[in-house]
Each structure stands twice: as structure tokens, then as C-alpha cells.
Amino acid sequence: MNYPPELVDFNTLEDLSAIKLFFTHNDHQKLIELKDRILVNHSNDFDYAFSLPFCLEFMDKSVDKSVAILKILEKENFTFTESISFGDGFNDEKMLIAAGKSLIMENAVEGLKNKLSHLEVISTNDDDGVAKYLSKVLLS
After folding, report:
1. Closest by CA position to 90, among listed 131, 10, 35
2. Which of 55, 81, 90, 101 has its CA 20 to 30 A from that of 119?
3. Which architecture does CATH list for 1-61?
4. Which residues contact 115 (CB under 8 A, 6 or more apart)?
5. DSSP at 16
């Protein structure tokens, strides 16, 4: 994907209803420095995740994949213990921790694989890892 850069003057910004702020930079250390600067004054306002080493995302604390999934599970009369999740970035971490069965994609960031090293690693997204896993486990 190609995201064209946009300079924003936050002093004139009127609509603050965005659910996510996304920053990208080839130098991961620069993103870490940016994250730290933002969190100095906003650690109670935002959660953050490095979906990839070059992608830093900030979102409202109410934005969480596991919360959204829980709402769907409850509506369908299921629990997290009856769910399977697949993830490849730190924005998937809470979901992977909450699900009954969680799998990490081979293409996941190394830090996530190290942090959740107890989880099974399956094939990459490019190799249809989720589809192959579901076919093998659910259809065999």
C-alpha cells in the first residue's frame, strides 16, 4: 500500500474523531522516539502498537480487537475459549492473549513471536497460512 504523506496542523484540526493515527518511517528507532514523546503527555489517552517495525499506530484506549471480537462472540453465544485467532503484529497481541487458541503467522514481527513464544507459528500470509491451517484442522 502507498499512503501519501499529509502534513496536519493540529492547531486548526476540528474533527478529532479519528480512531487511529498511523506513523511510518524506515528507521524503527525514530518511531520509538516519537512514541515516547507522544506518551509523555498522553499515556492515559492512547494505546499504541507497532504493527510492523516501520508502522506505529496510536488508537483510543477503547479500540481493541479483543473487545470487538468479544462483542461478536457474546452475540453468537460463544466465549473466547471457543475462538481461534491469528496474528502477525503487536496490534494483535491482546487478541492473541484472549483467544482460546491463538496462532502467530510466520511473517509476524520477531518481537511478537518472542513475546508469545508459547504459541504455534503457522505459514505466512503470502502462503495462505490461515486458510491452510483451517483446512487442515477443521476440515480433516
Report:
1. 35
2. 55
3. 2-Layer Sandwich (3.30)
4. 93
5. -
Architecture of domain 65-138: 3-Layer(aba) Sandwich (3.40)
Question: What are the two backbone dihedrals, phi and then psi, of residue 129, each rounded to the nearest 5 degrees?
Answer: -55, -45
Residues in the chain: 140
Pairing label, strands 55-60, 46-52: antiparallel
Grid cell listed for 123: 505459514
pTM reported for the whole predicted model: 0.69
Q: What is the pLDDT of residues 96-134, one digit of tens each?
A: 999 999 999 999 988 889 999 999 999 998 999 999 999
Helix (H) or strand (E) holding 58: strand 55-60
Contact 8, 33 (CB under 8 A): no
Side-chain half-sphere exposure of 58, counting CA atoms within 13 A: 18
In this structure, the number of other CB atoms found within 10 A of the CB of residue 131 comes to 11
